[in-house]
Amino acid sequence: MGRVTHDWSRYWRSPDRPLEAMHAHFERHVYHRHSHETYSFGVTEDGAQSFTCRGAAHTSAAGMIMAFNPEDPHDGHAANALGFTYRMVHIGPELVADALEDATGRRTGLPLFAAPVVDDPALAGALRALHAALLDETGRATALRRDELLAATIAQIVRRAAASPIATARVRPHAVAARARSVLHDRLTDDLTIDDLARAAGASRYAVYRAFHDAYGLAPSDYQRQLRLRRARDLIASGTPIAQAAALAGFADQSHLTRWFTRCFGLTPGAYRAAITTNR
Question: What integer is the mean pLDDT of 80-89?
Answer without folding.
Answer: 96
